[in-house]
Amino acid sequence: PKGTMAFTGKYEFEGDENYDAFVQKIGLPSDKVEMGRNCKIVTEVVQNGNDFKWTQHFPGGHTTTNTFTVGKEADMETMGGKKFQATVKMEDGKLIADFPNYRHTAEISGGKLVEISSCSGVVYKRTSKKIA
Question: Where is the Cytosolic fatty-acid binding proteins domain (predicted)?
Answer without folding.
Answer: 9-26
